[in-house]
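User: Hey, quick favor. My workstation is busy. Could you predict this chain's structure for me?
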Amino acid sequence: MTDSKSGVLSTWKESLTDGNPRRLLVMSLIDSLGTGLYIAGSVIFFTQKIGLSAAQVGLGLSIASVVGFAGVVPSGWVAERFGTWGTLLVFDVWRLIGFASYVFVRSFPSFLVLVCFLSIPEQAVNPLMQRLVEQVVGPERRTVMMGKIRTIYNVGFTLGAPLSGLAVKFNTSAGYNSLMLGDAITYAFAAILLYRLRDVPGVRRPRRAARAAGADGAAGPARPPRFSVRALRDGRYMSAAAVNGVLSLHMSILSIALPLWIIMDTRVPRYAVGPLLVINTALVIPLQVPASALAKSIDKSIGIMRVAGASLAACCVLLAVSARLPLVPALAALAGAVAFLTFGEIAQSAGGWTLAYEMAPPEGRAQALATFGLSTSAQFIVGPLLLTDLVIAHGSVGWLFLAAVFLACALLMRVLIRGQADRTPSARPSRSPP
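Assistant: No problem, here it is.
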C-alpha cells in the first residue's frame, strides 16, 4: 500500500514539475471552474434572466445535443487536417465568444441558435483533448495523464459550482450575467495556456513538417488527410465504443436519475441529494489516477470495464431496493449506490481511454478518437429519455432491468473485441505519433 501511494505521489510530482503536463492540468482546473459555475447556475439563468420555460430549456438542450453529436466526427477530421492544437485553440475562442454572447439573448429562438452553436465544440473537445494529451506526454503516460486531468476537473468543478450561488443570490441582471461571463473568461485563460504548448513536437499543424521535408528535397508535402469513416466500419472498435457508451450512462444517472428517484420514490428528504453527490467527488479525486495506472493494455482495460459494468449493476440494485426501505436504511442504500456508481465511473473512464487509444489506427487518430467519442455524445441524447421514461417510470423493476443491461455489457466486453487483446505490444504498430 505504501509503495502504491508513493508511486501515485511521484507521478503527480512529475506532472506538476514538468511544464507541459502542468499546463494541461492548469487548463483543466480553469475549464472546470467555469463549467461548475455554468452547470450549477445555467437553468436559473435561462429561466430567470432570459425568461424561458422549463420545457423550452429542455427542448433547446435536446436539439443542441443532436447538433453537437453530428459535429463530433467532422471535428476529428478538421483536427487531422489542421492539427489538434490549432483546432482546440479555435474551440476555446469559439466558446469564449459563445458564452459571452448569452448576455444578449432575449428569446427562445436566439437561445436555440446559441446553444446549438456552442454544442459542437462542447461535445467535440473531449476526444480531441485525448489526442492532445497523447501528443504532449506520449503513449506511455497518456492514460494516467487523462486520470489526473479528470481528478483536477472534479476539484475545479467542486470549487466552481458554489460560486453560482453567490452570482444569483441577489436576483439581479448583473449577477446572472456574471455566470456566463465568468465561464467565458475561463476559456480565455485556457486558450492562453494552450497557446504556450505550440512548440511541443507534434502538436502543431501536420502540413508544416511535410512542407519542410519537401523544401529539403525529400518526398514533398503529403496530401491533406481525407474525411474518412474507416473507424465506423471497424466492428471491434465500434463495439467497444458502444459498450463504452452504455457504461457512460453513469453520467445521466448521477445528474438526472438519482435526484429524481430520491425526490419521487424514496423516503429520503430532498436536501440529502447534495451531500450524497459529494460522495462522488470525494471518491473520484483519490482513486481516478491509481485506476488509470492499471489500464496498461487492451486486456487489462477489458477487465477494468467489466468491473465498471458490475459496479453500475450493483448501484442499480441498491437504487431499486431503496424505494422500499425506511429512512435510515434507505439513506445507507443510496450512499452505497453512489459509491458503486463512482467506482463504475472511475473504471469506465480508465478502461475507455485505453481502449480508444490502443484500438485506434496509427493514421487518422484524431478522427478515430472522435468516432469513439460518439458513444459518450449519444449518451447525452439518449440517457435522459431512457432513464426517465423507461427506468424511473417503472420503479424498482426499471432499475433491475438496467442492472441486467450493465451486467450484460460486462460479460460481452471481452467477446466483442476478442482477438485485439491477444496482440502483444511488440506485434502491434507504434501508437505514438510519427
